[in-house]
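Model: You mentioned two targets. I'll fold them one after the other.
Researcher: Yes, keep them separate.
Model: Target one:
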Amino acid sequence: MANIRFEGGAAVKTDTRTYAFGGTWEADDVIRVQVGNKIKDVTGGSVTTATVVTTLAAAIVALSADDFPEMVGAESGFLATASTTTLTLTANKPGVPFICTLTPLEVTLGTADAQTIGGVGTATTGTVSVANAGSTVWDTAANWDGGVVPVAADAVFFDHYSGDVLYGLSNAGATLASLNFARSFTGLVGLPKVNNLGEEYPEYRTEYLTIDATLVRIGYGPGEGAGRIKLNNGSVQTAVTVDNTGTPVDEDLEAVLWKGTHASNTMTVRGDGSVGVAVFGGEVATLATLTVEGNSNVRCGLGTTLTTVTVNGGSVELNSNVTTLTVNDGTVTVNGTMTVGQLTINRGLVIYNSTGTLSGNTVVGENGSIDFGQGVGAVTVSNPIDSNNLNPVNDPDKRIVSLVVDYNGVTPLAGFGTNVRLTRANVA
């Protein structure tokens, strides 16, 4: 085990890929060029491999900046160089990797018969001849104080550093002992959904720092904190603690975006933390326990599996089912069709916009309340609401199918005494 600190400062190298052409080509065979979701089909125009390669190189250099912002011609840095049987592509921007897929096809755009790129006749991203490197690249060894990229059982630290970590983010398979981001680290980790380096386009490279870690700690100590840390802890059991974060840099998103799928994952968010869990469509995450306190802002997306959630302060938005929800302070909003099992509100507010069932016991303390008035649609509350608060429920639109409240130790109406059950019913 080693303690390793990210220092940045590595020399920049330009990503370069080589593609080998072979087999037998026909004049109407097609090469599909794809970067992210952008596609360009080029006809080779010859039975001679060298001519096919030359034709493709010229076509790639001539690609439109609007359609292929990373391939905008040699005048802006991107190079496509042809030799007899190979094509070499050099990235437009040093230190920024690209992934270009070439696929040999028939004129009908069906599977190639005898022509090959990469020797296999199917899609290929080529062979890396010069690996992308630079101060924003996780897997550039020179960025680390020991000159070695972290490996299993290492403790990794980011502190007193303002540079970004944007590329080389796929590092699953070796579990770190811990991954630590001090509040004095103010750089960005991970890529936004939309690439904004020049022409905007959907990001196709790895967006999250994808790494296994037993412990993750974010935002400890003094400092302004980071405005974007995107972490994917995969299927390894992880305990995440977020003490504080910086101000989010991405509109309508939290500063820390996290996902991980182990059934026993835990997360504690406190201070001024801003955290989103599996917030993008199609993402999944699992938290056995989630604890939120302080002035934190936490949002759990549709793909989150939650078991026990305890809120001691702050603001929490739940877009997923939860087995046990305890609110000791703060505000919790439940959306969509999400269900809640056991719900206890000792202090604070639950805004129940969901049409999902409250299936367990619902207990509302003297300083707690649950508001159904901001949502739309019928709600089933399976058991009587147990409360020692005179006004535990706000349901002006009568969303609750059958509202029953057990008042314990308080008198809901003059002359009714204590320990009274009231059932709401419409009158003529």
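Model: Target two:
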Amino acid sequence: MKSAADLNPSDPYQRLLQEYDLREIDSNDARSLFHRKYMARLRWVVGTVQRQLAPGSIVLEVGCSQANASLLLAERGYRAVGLDIRPKALGYALSKHTDGPFFVVAGSAAHLPVSNQQVDGIILGELLEHCADPVGIVRECSKALAPGGIAVLTTPNGQYIGSTEPLYRPDSQGNASLAQQQFGAAGDDHLFAFTLPSLKQVLAAAGLQPGACGYVGSAIYSDRLSPLKRLLPLRWLGGLSTWISSTPGLNRWLSYSLVAVARKPVSGDE
């Protein structure tokens, strides 16, 4: 995969995506808050797919934007497909592609242009918080999954001590005014945030079986702790963040992101 620094996009929206990449996956500052938060999620997503699915499996990244997860999985031998509602995002993703089977398709998460039961894995990275109907989106993705297939999700932690976003409630599901606000062009249209229990409820309501769910990224990466971040070796910084995100009582309040994997039942599953 090419670095964003090696690209020269002429379109304003693609330049915006390049700016995101330059402060996230391709940042020159390995201690940057944006870089550490983003890489914690990305490594978890890619690692989870690799643990759950064999190379050669079809993995669909819904709302892929820069498609970094798909591009990394393609390099590892997965048949990766990036789907986004914005063709310019797909053009940007294609400009980064170098190795492995990677394809793009334009479409909406609400109406996937994918045949039923044709996909082994689906990635929903930082998407549900933008959706007025999270259960409907996950249910639509479940249709595309083959029996036994997995959905891999990340979303901001609504209980993080710095979060100011309203928490998701089932009675807000499908609200018409929220539907008009969803899928904003700059990614600044979060409608609500989830707790780990409410995220599991969405997955179950959509007919999936929640599996490994938890937290990644922690307040140790905050710029407010910049002096401490500069003193700690990177290995210690990552280890401390992992410890916080895996420690009950700390992770709920001090972790930036929720992560979850859920499985589509096979025939005979309860």
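Researcher: Noted. Anything on target two?
Model: The longest strand covers residues 145-156.
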